[in-house]
């Protein structure tokens, strides 16, 4: 199975809502489908703040990855955050997430991306190992902090 990446468009919204719902159920994130659609639709419509890639065949995706864009003085320009990454449980462990995490930054670097970041539960050793294999590293003395508005 391949981590073929397809840039998601509005026609993929319902497939993505189903995948995001599955991810949120696993992660304990409580949102309505209306809120999920509101978060996804602008990304699928082409806003410059981020994008969504389907993983696997677009007709029956096996996962997705949401990338959001920002700017970093420290990294010298455009940076990105992996906001969500999900692979259906039945196909996990086959290297799909690793393949996507290696291919996507290479593709985005061509557009001027200088760094890509992600957040991970520090008790999730499987995810930590995946991200390390894909070239991500913990930055000593740094962590994400959040304030909901």
Notes on the protein architecture:
- It is built from four helices and five strands.
- It has helices at residues 13-27, 33-44, 96-109, 125-133, and strands at residues 5-7, 50-55, 63-72, 77-87, 115-118.
- It has a five-stranded mixed β-sheet with strand order 1-2-3-4-5, with helices on both faces.
The strand order across the widest sheet is: 1-2-3-4-5
Helix count equals: 4
What is the H/E string? EHHEEEHEH
The CATH fourth-level homologous superfamily: Gcn5-related N-acetyltransferase (GNAT)
Described by strand count, sense and barrel closure, the largest sheet is: 5 strands, mixed
> Which fold name is given in CATH as the topology?
Aminopeptidase
What's the structural domain tally?
Answer: 1
- How much of the residues is beta strand, in percent? 15-25%
Brief digest:
This protein is of the alpha+beta class and 149 residues long. The protein is 34% helix and 23% strand.
SSE layout:
Blueprint: E1 5-7, H1 13-27, H2 33-44, E2 50-55, E3 63-72, E4 77-87, H3 96-109, E5 115-118, H4 125-133
Parallel strand pairs: 4-5
Antiparallel strand pairs: 1-2, 2-3, 3-4
Helix pairs in contact: 1-2
Protein traits:
single chain; 149 residues; alpha+beta; Aminopeptidase; five-stranded mixed β-sheet; 4 helices; 5 strands; 23% strand; globular
């Amino acid at each position: 199975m391949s981590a073929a990446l397809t840039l998601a468009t509005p026609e993929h919204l319902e497939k993505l809502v189903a995948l995001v719902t599955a991810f949120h159920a696993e992660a304990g994130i409580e949102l309505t489908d209306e809120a999920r659609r509101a978060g996804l639709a602008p990304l699928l419509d082409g806003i410059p703040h981020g994008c969504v890639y389907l993983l696997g065949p677009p007709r029956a995706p096996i996962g997705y990855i949401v990338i959001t864009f920002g700017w970093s003085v420290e990294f010298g320009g455009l940076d990105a955050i992996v906001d969500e990454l999900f692979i259906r449980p039945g196909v996990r462990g086959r290297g799909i997430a690793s393949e996507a995490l290696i291919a996507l930054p290479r593709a985005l670097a061509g557009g001027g991306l200088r760094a890509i970041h992600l957040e991970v539960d520090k008790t999730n050793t499987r995810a930590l190992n995946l991200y390390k294999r894909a070239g991500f590293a913990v930055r000593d003395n740094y962590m994400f902090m959040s304030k909901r508005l």
